[in-house]
Amino acid sequence: MKKVLILGAGLVAKPLVRYLLQQPDLQVKVASRTVGKAEKLIEGHPRGAAKELDLKNEGVLNEEVKWADLVISMVPYTFHPKVAEFCIAHKKHMVTTSYVSEAMKKLDVKAREAGIIILNELGLDPGIDHMEAMRVIDEVKKEGGEIQGFVSFCGGLPAPEANTNPFGYKFSWSPVGVLLAGKNSAQYLKDGREIFIPSENLFENYDFITIKGLGVFEGYPNRNSLPYISLYGIPEAKTMLRGTLRYVGWCETIKKMVQLGVLNQEEKEWIGMSYREFLQQLIGSPNEKDLKQLLCDYLRIDPGQAIVRRLEWLGLLSEEPLPLPKGSALELVAARMIEKLQYAEGERDMIVLQHEFAAGYPSGEREKITSTLIDFGVPGGDSSMARTVGLPAAIGTKLILEGRIKERGVHIPVLSDIYKPILLELRDLGIAFKEKREKL
Description:
Blueprint: E1 2-7, H1 13-21, E2 26-32, H2 35-42, E3 48-52, H3 58-67, E4 70-73, H4 80-90, E5 93-96, H5 102-105, H6 108-114, E6 117-119, H7 128-142, E7 146-158, H8 175-180, E8 186-190, E9 193-197, E10 207-211, E11 215-221, H9 227-231, E12 239-246, H10 250-260, E13 268-269, H11 275-283, H12 291-299, H13 306-314, E14 326-327, H14 329-340, E15 349-360, E16 366-376, H15 384-401, E17 409-411, H16 416-428, E18 434-439
């Protein structure tokens, strides 16, 4: 019986754990700093176990990795290289849903020498997006064509009927991670020209994206898209853009919140302070007369703008006490947002992922290929975010342990023997793309 160690018991782990426990030849151990979360995921299953583990305790971590045949790391990406080093030392395979860091790339040779695969970016975005992109790209190449342009947007959002707050957003994963995206710069290729967007201008550079059946959204560039020209094997592409999708109004809101200083990670004391006093500190004004007007003056906006209503709704102008006596502005605002931007019981989340390809053929014909995934959470059950992140990792784990993925070293799922079986099984599980082709 093969043994799988899962590090982390967060919001997206449940479908992953359930899928693996449904495999009759797998034993699954979930290790978490909070053992109660791990026990909740295992639900007393006879082939499951829960373990309390602090990742900083490297001796215990080493022993747990040694026990397993494969390790799935669902903890913050900064811990992945250390876990990977233990996996290499004990010749254990590893799976993550995170972007490949430079530290992980450097372990490629050692992983090959150890005879293991470290398969990263095996979630939704990154993950399913890579796999569907490569399916279409390989198909076009088989038809003798080439990819001249690739544009992709992905978003995890409330389903339309659950879009009930002024922010147009609810959290199905870490609020800190969502907010820190506002600190990322972006690079992409458009019509043969490289474009760099510094982080302070990120939310000024968005487009309106239409998703058939759902309407219009905002899409803004996500990190550095340029490496995917090589990773996807399309050096002929003149456009390469990967971006994030949000409901209309999000970019303006986050831009102003960044300007306000809510992403500041410097720890301070806030003992006895209210949100109103916190906001006064952010804008550097002790004046009590008209905080709303002072806020508008600071942000250079009109009091009637939607951003003001959003900040009022969030409670930043209220007399309510702060939830933490000590912490960073980022932690305080993230705590408030996770409190206010919650899914109510029975509400669904929604994943929207759309690829657009411009393909050219030797005949001179050109076509636009649109591949769209729209997936909804299950009311009272798994979120779509949890399913689309957790299930690819689970399926990939099964394939590795069955010997059906034979590559070794550090990889992402762009090879056909990885993406084909995963996409096929995801389709069987109800996670499927719809493709449309149009002549240009």
